Amino acid sequence: MMNDATLRKIDLNLLLAFSVLMQERNVSRAAERLLLGQPGLSAALRRLREALDDELFVRVGRGLQPTPRALSIAPAIENALSGIECAIRPPEEFNPATWQGEFRIGMCDNLESAFFGPLAARLLQLSPGARLIGIAAEKRDAARRLDEGVFDFSVSVHEEPASWHIRAPLFDQVSICIYDSAQLGLKAPLSLDDFANVAHVTVSFEGNAATGIDIALGSTGRSRRVVATVPRFSALPTALRAMPAIAVVPESIGRCMAQLHGLTICEPPLSLPADPVTMLYRRVDQADGRVRWFRRLFIEVANEALEASGCCVSISRTAA
What we know:
Oligomer: single chain
Family: Belongs to the LysR transcriptional regulatory family.
Pfam families: HTH_1 (PF00126), LysR_substrate (PF03466)
GO molecular function: DNA binding; DNA-binding transcription factor activity
Strand order of the largest sheet: 4-3-5-12-6
Helix content: 40-55%
Number of domains: 3
Structural class: alpha/beta
Strand content: 15-25%
CATH architecture of the largest domain: 3-Layer(aba) Sandwich
CATH class of the largest domain: Alpha Beta
Domain HTH lysR-type: 10-67
Keywords: Activator, DNA-binding, Nodulation, Transcription, Transcription regulation
Number of strands: 12
């Protein structure tokens, strides 16, 4: 068995010189292909002969004849060089028009309502053989499910990422008020007292009513009355159409709800913090042609959807 000291004497240049000599069987032509002078190639061959303790090539007339040892190791060396070439060759450009398979995206339901439909429609145009799979995802488990391969990337308000993840900024999600003006009998803009005194419906996956809104109201010496809490944004429109109440929701889904259900929207009468919506994906997928194309497509579609709905924000220029 070859020892470590011998292996250290054999580098990629020597293996490449051996491969070209096997093909050309002529030092001059091999040196020309390798962009080496004949002395340089002869020195490389000498080092390889010493490392392998075999003549490898013997001169026959004007050419070279490989020894039995050279013939026996040539296939393995060719396979190794071919593998290296494949590994460092630039990846082929992804072609969505001919690709068949799934694109998987993780989103919470408010972002899903705003972006999933336009994304599915665009994907059908550009990649008719593909299927879009939406996965319900919360920020608390997005990183774990990403590592498990549940989706290609997640769009949410993500926590600090691990070193093997990339968190790309998308947009700051501001909040707006939404209500049924026929039920509530109030006209926009709302006063701070109206906002505090009217009944509120909140959205919480875990059933928690208190949010940053309560903290902001508390700083003004006011509080609000929460009469109902639902786990999903999809339940809000029917609830607001049925009672004189108001909800504070992300602008992207609030504008969609207003258009679909004839609800009224307005800005909150107090300053509320914006949530940074980001895209989370694995660092190993950064250069993957398929996933890179899918990320760029989402960014394009999401930016158009935000603009079409009248949102005051747009996708960050530094996204993905």
